[in-house]
Q: What sequence folds into this?
């Protein structure tokens, strides 16, 4: 019998998402329950958006939760490299093989031509898709054009009619019409593969037997299945996991709920409680008990107990569960965990230089700097009344700063200052007009320690959370404002 091998294949393009942790957890449980292996692969073929910082954050977040992998970029293994950006030669070889077998073809169409085709199809109310223009170019002609250095991509051929049967472990057979599939680009003009080619090649070469991934990928399953068929490879078992949702049933998004695992760590949730809660997403223990450990989940794991109704990620429920976990600690353990969380020497050393000059006794520290140890603040709207800016402008400054800081990857005082300055300059405001709003949002006070240092110290998750909290307190941004401000934001570059 082949060993069960599952994987998680995150793209390192942002904060470590709770959805990634959720899918990782289910893959881990499935593998462990079958005595198999769980692999971590980094899908970083999007050169512009992938960063090493984000990759590191994914490792840290998963490890904080207690999720460990048997093979991966940082731990090695027999099927490496486990980072797609280091596997370029491999994809090239397989792409060439598909072209040689006639399952894929080089496409030289310019972006202008593709836009034009698309516009025409849209005008005729057809589904926009590639029209097959380069499919019939003779192989030797195509090779000459490539040898001459002409820019090109490689596209896969897809059937034009009929249906593809996708066998999903949870849904059974799902039929998807080929008329909905485009001739997917497999290799981009920069010589890097797209998700489709790299994912199939790697899952095959890494011996993955079961792929549990988010259901947002279900519509594109036929293309993957076709690729396995073209290569003559056995396809892994597929399992499309229900997507996490906000309490209002919409897809979990950071606009409504913090989605970064690090946010929950920073807020003082316990990793065991968080993992337990993720295990409750669409799944339950046979005896329906709410509180369970990872070991217990593995022991009783049964993929057939995953229910397809969209699981709701509700911070209030998570808090409730965290409370259960927390109260079961001994007082000693509790004290130890709190210390580890924020009353540790590292964190103290970050804060000390900023409070030392501002207090006369230690007992003045908590009132001055309590916000370093808090999550949400009790904000007073009066703090946001501004001498120069009206209420709308205040909200606008908060929103633009929030967007700017959401995009910031390297979190340090200098870069944070640049972001705030950029917003100020764009709105023709002085830094000293913008800063009081930062003070109010981040510290909950009219003055305190240096707010730019405070933002660096409390970190991106809490900074963004508090700016959002302030914005919401003042009424949020209407749909119309969001539209207008997005334009403004885009113009900031
Ligand atoms: N890189 C994809 C992602 O970021 C992987 C999806 C899959 O599991 O195939 O979600």
A:
């Amino acid at each position: 019998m082949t060993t069960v091998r599952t994987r998680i294949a995150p793209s390192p393009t942002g904060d470590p998402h709770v959805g990634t942790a959720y899918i990782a957890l289910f893959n881990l449980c499935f593998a462990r329950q079958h005595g198999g292996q769980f692999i971590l692969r980094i899908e970083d073929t999007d050169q512009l958006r992938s960063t090493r910082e984000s990759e590191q954050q994914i490792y840290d977040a998963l490890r904080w939760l207690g999720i460990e992998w048997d093979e991966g970029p940082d731990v090695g293994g027999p099927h490496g490299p486990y980072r797609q950006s280091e596997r370029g030669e491999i994809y090239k070889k397989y792409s060439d093989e598909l072209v040689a077998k006639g399952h894929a073809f080089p496409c030289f169409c310019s972006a202008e031509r593709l836009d034009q085709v698309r516009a025409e199809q849209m005008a005729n109310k057809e589904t926009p898709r590639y029209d097959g223009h380069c499919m019939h170019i003779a192989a030797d002609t195509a090779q000459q054009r490539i040898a001459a250095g002409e820019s090109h991509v490689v596209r896969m051929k897809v059937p034009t009619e009929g249906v593809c049967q996708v066998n999903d472990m949870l849904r059974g057979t799902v039929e998807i019409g080929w008329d909905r599939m485009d001739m997917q680009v497999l290799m981009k003009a920069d010589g890097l593969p797209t998700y489709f080619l790299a994912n199939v090649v790697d899952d095959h070469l890494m011996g993955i037997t079961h792929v549990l991934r988010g259901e947002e990928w279900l519509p594109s399953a036929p293309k993957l299945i076709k690729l396995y068929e073209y290569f003559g490879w056995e396809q892994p078992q597929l399992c499309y996991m229900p997507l996490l949702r906000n309490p209002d049933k919409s897809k979990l998004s950071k606009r409504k709920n913090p989605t970064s695992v690090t946010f929950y760590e920073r807020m003082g949730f316990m990793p065991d409680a968080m993992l337990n809660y993720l295990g409750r997403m669409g799944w339950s223990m046979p005896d329906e008990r709410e509180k369970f450990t990872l070991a217990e989940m593995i022991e009783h794991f049964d993929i057939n107990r995953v229910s397809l109704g969209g699981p709701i990620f509700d911070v209030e429920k998570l808090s409730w569960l965290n409370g259960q976990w927390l109260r079961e600690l001994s007082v000693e353990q509790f004290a130890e965990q709190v210390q580890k969380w924020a009353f540790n020497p590292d964190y103290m050393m970050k804060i000390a230089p900023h409070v030392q000059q501002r207090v006369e006794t230690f007992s003045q520290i908590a009132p001055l700097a309590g916000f370093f140890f808090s999550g949400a603040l009790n904000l007073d709207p009066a703090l946001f009344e501004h001498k120069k800016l009206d209420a709308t402008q205040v909200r606008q400054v908060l929103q633009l700063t929030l967007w700017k800081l959401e995009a910031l990857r390297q979190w340090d005082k200098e870069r944070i200052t640049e972001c705030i300055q950029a917003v100020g300059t764009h709105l023709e405001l002085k830094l000293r007009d913008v800063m009081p709003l930062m003070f109010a949002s981040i510290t909950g006070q009219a003055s305190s320690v240096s707010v730019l240092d405070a933002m660096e110290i409390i970190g991106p998750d809490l900074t963004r959370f508090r700016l959002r909290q302030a914005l919401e307190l003042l009424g949020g941004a209407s749909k119309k404002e969001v539209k207008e401000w997005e334009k403004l934001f885009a113009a900031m570059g």
